[in-house]
Structures are given as C-alpha cells and as structure tokens.
Design a protein that fits this description.
By secondary structure, the chain is mainly alpha-helical. About 75% of the residues lie in helices and about 0% in strands.
Length: about 325
C-alpha cells in the first residue's frame, strides 16, 4: 500500500528491498528520535511530531522499522535505569510509543488519504491523528511512571505541585503541540517541492520564495525579539504578554501564505516558546504559566491551519508575478 509519498513497489524485490531498507529506516529514525528526545520536555514533545510525520509519510509496511528504531534508544535507557526505577518501570519504558500510536494511525491510514480528491491536505485528519495520539501518549506516560513511583522511597509524583492530573495535561498538550510543531511544517515543505512541475529544484527557486524571504526578513527577527523580551522580563504578567505576542507573526504568515505560512510560523513560534520556558524554568517541570500559553498557541494553530488550508495556494517559488 502506498502512503502519502509512498515508495514504488512495481520493481522486482531484492534482499536489500526486503531487509536493507527496513534497517536503514530504523537507523535513520533512531538517530532523529535521539535528537528530538534531547530537545523535548514533557510539555513540548518534538518526538510526537517526528512520529506523526513518519506514520503519515511512510507506507504501512515500513512501520515495524519505526518500532525498531524507537525501541533501541528506549531499551538503552531502561537498562541503565533499572536499579533506580525498578524492573516494571524498565519494561514499560522499553515499549515504543510509536507502537501504541499505530492503534490510532492504522485505521486512519487505511480509510482516508492525507490528500482529498482535489489534492488538498486533509487538515482535520491531521488534527484527529495528533489529538488521538496525544491522548494515548498522556495515558501511557502516566501509567508507565506509576511503577517508578511505587519503587521509590517517597512514593510521590515527580512534580508534587501538579500531581497526576497536571502530569496528564502536560503530556497531552506537549504531545499535541509537538505534533503541530513538526508534522505540518514537514508536510508543507514537501508539498511545495512537489508542486514544481517539469523543472529541477534549484537554489534560486528557494531563494526567490516569498515564504523564505518573509521568514528571514521579518518573522524570525520578530520572534527573536519577542523571545528576548519574555526571557529578560522579571515580571510574570509581562512575560505572559510577551509570550502571547508570539501569535502575531504566525497569524501574519497565515494571511500571506495560507496553511504553509501557519506551519512554518507555528514551528518557529513553538520553538521560541520552548526557549522562553526553558530559560524561565530550567528544571523543565510542568509550569502552569507555560501550559496556559501552549494551550492558546495550540488552539490558534489548529484554527489557523484549518482556515489556511481552504485558501488557494500560490506558486511556492515565485517572487513576483510575470507581466
């Protein structure tokens, strides 16, 4: 079965096609997962965006390679921490989250295509997948930490200020926002490259893209300035106001470039919010103030992507229209 951008299966299979591609995909995914996991924290999980992108783009027959690629780093952590958190936690930790996600993603992939009959992205399908997998992530995360709590001498949650309800909310929101940080941006870039007809993608095409110029000339500088304001402010209210201001550039990108602008702007705004959260809260625990802004940002991205997906898409690599 072909996925969105699936691999052609008409050629005669070789041993490399049968096993080598799986090994290569598993190795590549494991490396990307390690990087995404290093940059993630509970309320902002880039690993969720990586999983969702791979499950949307790869044919289903390659999904076992994703499970293998995620199992390897998880098994390493589980083995190294078995004395600290107990054998039952280690067993739960070694279960790849991508396997649990397949419970939601396989029926979606089998019944619906990522593109509709007119070639437009099915944005509600993306949101349904992101929300369903976020709920699975949160429940699995809470259940997996219970053995560690029982094994510990204190018997308390990692963050006593939130307890399990706050822990559940942080992981749900973190997975959902993490999915919206990476998956739409990857799908948008891929769609823009595929819309180049009868010509090879050149650097000049990318450089003359209105989207890239808006990103470099004003979007990134604006987000950097807002992030600096949030990081330097010692007043909680002013910090929250600065974080809310991150929404402005994203909405402007939506107005200028449709859902592609939302996807790229949303990714940059999510990164900016994560940086400000890490500076204000170096322990990276579930910060209620950060969770509030993340909830607003996730809601805004959902609405903007839905609205932007209905707008007509301009040619992705045109700086000025020919007369």
């Amino acid at each position: 079965m072909k996925g969105f951008g699936g691999i052609d299966t008409t050629q005669r299979a070789t041993p490399w096609d049968k096993w080598g591609q799986h090994v290569a995909i598993a190795a590549a995914y494991a490396g990307c997962y390690e990087l995404a996991h290093y940059l993630s924290f509970p309320q902002w999980a880039l690993t969720a965006g990586l999983r969702l992108s791979c499950l949307l783009l790869l044919p289903i027959r390659y999904w076992p390679a994703l499970a293998l690629g995620e199992f390897v780093p998880l098994a390493e952590v589980a083995l190294l921490s078995v004395d600290k958190f107990g054998i039952y936690w280690s067993i739960a930790e070694a279960v790849p989250m991508v396997v649990l996600w397949m419970i939601v993603m396989k029926p979606l992939r089998q019944h619906w295509s990522v593109l509709d009959s007119e070639g437009r992205i099915r944005m509600p399908l993306i949101f349904l997948a992101a929300l369903g997998t976020a709920i699975i992530t949160a429940i699995a995360s809470v259940l997996s930490i219970i053995p560690a709590i029982l094994h510990s001498s204190t018997g308390t949650w990692p963050d006593p200020n939130t307890g399990w309800p706050g822990y559940l909310l942080a992981h749900t929101l973190g997975s959902y926002l993490g999915s919206l940080t990476l998956a739409p941006a990857i799908l948008a870039l891929r769609e823009r490259f595929l819309r180049i007809e009868d010509e090879t993608l050149r650097f000049s095409h990318v450089w003359h893209s209105l989207l890239l110029r808006d990103v470099l000339w004003w979007m990134l500088p604006s987000l950097a300035a807002i992030t600096a304001m949030a990081a330097m402010s010692n007043d909680d209210l002013m910090r929250q106001v600065a974080r809310l201001a991150l929404i402005g550039p994203v909405l402007t990108m939506t107005w200028r470039h449709g859902w592609h602008g939302t996807a790229i702007g949303g990714m940059a705004a999510s990164v900016a919010l994560a940086i400000s959260a890490a500076i204000a809260n170096p322990s990276l625990r579930a910060d209620p103030a950060t969770i509030q802004i993340e909830a607003i940002l996730a809601l805004m991205l959902t609405g903007a992507l839905l609205v932007g997906a209905r707008a007509p898409l301009k040619h992705p690599f045109v700086h000025r229209q020919s007369s």
